[in-house]
């Protein structure tokens, strides 16, 4: 089993739709979680951190479910500009860091 | 703009040659990371530094790869005797170690093509 797994997609959704992605992780000792956005042939850009209590930033909501070992990203009212690949990141600390990215979920918002 | 910078942005080299990439992190960031990314995959961790100390190195990193951060500021990644399988985007990221955040900020990457 991969340490961090994401559905690669693509998710094709119409403008204005709500879409959700999940990311599962295998190491229960993981402590920090993030969502990044990556446009084609560009570097990943931090979208948001994922806190135990959940985190909302405008149209984006991230949640953590430690019991089931997954994080989620919800995008409401999708815009064409949301089209990108969304990467989840799981970090285990304590001693040295172990940083693991998922393979990413591709989102295509259609007019 | 005081973000992470990388040089060169593109590098084409022949198999067997050595290449070196440079990364300049955000100035107050004490952690620096190197990743490799190939098409359709997420960034793959290679190594990271806290100040000048290299704290972790991926088992995937062969002996042909070496990284340094001599003064705790910029870092270099060298690949010796390049192979076609080394063709990838090499990404650098930096973060500020704190108790509350490990947010990493990426540079634009160096795209390596080995012919």
Q: Taking all residues together, what is the mean pLDDT of chain A?
A: 94
Broad structural category of chain A = mainly beta
Overall shape of chain B: it is globular
SS field, number of helical segments of chain A: 0
Number of E-type strands of chain B: 11
Residue share in β-strands of chain A: over 45%
Give helix and strand order of chain A, one letter per element, not per position: EEEEEEEEEEE
Strand element count of chain A: 11
Number of helices of chain B: 0
Structural class of chain B: mainly beta
Q: Roughly how many Å is the radius of gyration of chain B?
A: 14 Å
Oligomeric category: heterodimer
Write the layout of secondary structure elements.
The complex is a heterodimer of chains A (111) and B (115).
Chain A: E1 4-6, E2 11-14, E3 19-25, E4 32-38, E5 45-50, E6 55-57, E7 60-65, E8 70-75, E9 84-92, E10 98-101, E11 105-110
Parallel strand pairs in A: 2-11
Antiparallel strand pairs in A: 1-3, 3-8, 4-5, 4-9, 6-7, 7-8, 9-10, 9-11
Chain B: E1 5-7, E2 10-13, E3 19-24, E4 31-37, E5 44-50, E6 53-57, E7 65-68, E8 75-79, E9 88-95, E10 105-106, E11 110-114
Parallel strand pairs in B: 2-11
Antiparallel strand pairs in B: 1-3, 3-8, 4-5, 4-9, 5-6, 7-8, 9-10, 9-11
Keywords for this entry:
heterodimer; A: 111 residues; six-stranded mixed beta sheet; five-stranded antiparallel beta sheet; 11 strands; globular; B: 115 residues; four-stranded antiparallel beta sheet
């Amino acid at each position: 089993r991969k340490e961090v797994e994401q559905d690669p997609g693509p998710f094709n959704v119409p403008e204005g739709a709500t879409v959700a992605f999940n990311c599962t992780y295998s190491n229960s000792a993981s402590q920090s979680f993030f969502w990044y956005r990556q446009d084609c042939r560009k570097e990943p850009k931090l979208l948001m951190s994922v806190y135990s209590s959940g985190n909302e930033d405008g149209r984006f909501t991230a949640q953590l479910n430690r019991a089931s070992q997954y994080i989620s990203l919800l995008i409401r009212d999708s815009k064409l500009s949301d089209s990108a690949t969304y990467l989840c990141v799981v970090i285990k600390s304590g001693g040295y860091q172990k940083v693991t990215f998922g393979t990413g979920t591709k989102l295509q918002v259609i007019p | 703009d005081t973000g992470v910078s990388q040089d060169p942005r593109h590098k084409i080299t022949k198999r067997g040659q050595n290449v070196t990439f440079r990364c300049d992190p955000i100035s107050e960031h004490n952690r620096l990371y190197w990743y490799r990314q190939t098409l359709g995959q997420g960034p793959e961790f290679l190594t990271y530094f806290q100040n000048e100390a290299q704290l972790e190195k991926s088992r995937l990193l062969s002996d042909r790869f070496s990284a340094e951060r001599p003064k705790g500021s910029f870092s270099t990644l060298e690949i010796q005797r390049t192979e076609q399988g080394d063709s990838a985007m090499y990404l650098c990221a930096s973060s500020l170690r704190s108790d509350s955040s490990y947010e990493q900020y990426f540079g634009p990457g160096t795209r390596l093509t080995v012919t």
